[in-house]
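#lab-general

N.A. 3:47 PM
ok so I finally got the sequence cleaned up, no stray characters, all 329 residues accounted for. can someone with queue access submit it? mine expired

B.Y. 3:52 PM
send it over

N.A. 3:53 PM
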Amino acid sequence: MNTDTMRALVQPSHNGPADLVLTDRPRSTAGPGEYLIRVGAAGINFADVMQSQGRYGGGPQAPYVAGFEAAGEIVAVGPDIASPLPLGTRVIGTGAGAFAQYMTMDAAGVLPVPAEWRDEQALGMVINWATALAALKPLGQIANGETVLIQAAAGGVGQAAVRLARHYGAKIIATASPAKHDTVKALGAHHVLDTRRPDLAEEILRLSGGIDLVLESIGRATFETSLTVTRPVTGRIIVFGAASGHATVSTHDLVFTHQVQVKGLHIGIVAAQAPALFEELLAELSTLIGNGVYPPGTPAVHALAEGPAVLQHLEAGRTEGKHALNPWL
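B.Y. 4:20 PM
back already:
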């Protein structure tokens, strides 16, 4: 292989992941404040689907190398890093162009992969688990004995949230498609409901009497239900995704119909705008790993060429849990 090039999945349009193309690209180089990473495993997230459709706020403009989450080995260190990690250190982090054999990451945003974990087992640490933890604790203020509703609980963030909510002593009502119910129950959910059942709000209220905290990532298809089942005044809704499209809520809704607390969450914005809070989240994740609450991940790993098909399955709601790409397969 030419050492000046690398294999990569390129998104040439905003027509969705079916357009992804496997091709050779110039190999990335580390700029100021960056590490060059030899990617061992790249995480697949629903944000990748949204970016491919051009509907992710602040997302890249086509054409671009797809992907943004990866784990791998530091193979070069750019200038202007005060105390760089040694070459060969395995790290997990985010950056543009993760669906490739090499990518760059901001040195300030990487974390070492736990020594006994493989690269793919660390995927989700700074995206899925950090998002779930932020939604439940600093934003959601979940307390022991409260009831939490986790929409799309079979996804990467959803599964992490179920584990964490059980750890923090919450009663968990989760939604997922029927084929995924057993998986979600096994993680600790007390009740798992079909996301598409017509009486979803009524059943949630029957089981709970009112939800203290909702983790909402589906958007248009479930947002009205989330508003309806949340306890007035004290209830909280944390919104961190819109897989079915964006929903709207008006000032009239919040004053006269649904008097609930609605908060938006984007973990990348948390890291950039509230770095101290983000560092606290990462420290808590390290504690959770040490206590066995956060186990090594078990993503389904695919060859890079399978990326377009896997993303189309994710787009259609036919995946479960975390998926990853190995750019060397």
